Amino acid sequence: MTTFVVTYTYDASPQAMAALRPQRYEFFARLDEQGVLLASGQLLDGPLGDGMLVLTAPDEAAARRMLAEDPFVREGLVARLELAAWRPTVGAWVAG
To answer: Which of 2, 17, 35, 47 is the most exposed place for a label (fewest CB within 10 A)?
Structure first.
């Protein structure tokens, strides 16, 4: 499995985001239950609280398919989604 860092830049009203947030949290909960979501959170320096995920997937294509199911992505609230393979080298997520 490859670890990926995902950043989201939103292009939506706070009301549109609030309306879909429960569905989005359900989406994140499913990824967590599957063991692929390592972390999810809001970036504090963006105007709409842009977001970041750390997840695992077999490859980039699989990660992109997974992210396509995000309600914010499906409904066009994401202006930019950046995905980068990441190799943690030091810290709690590094095995042995």
So the answer is: 47
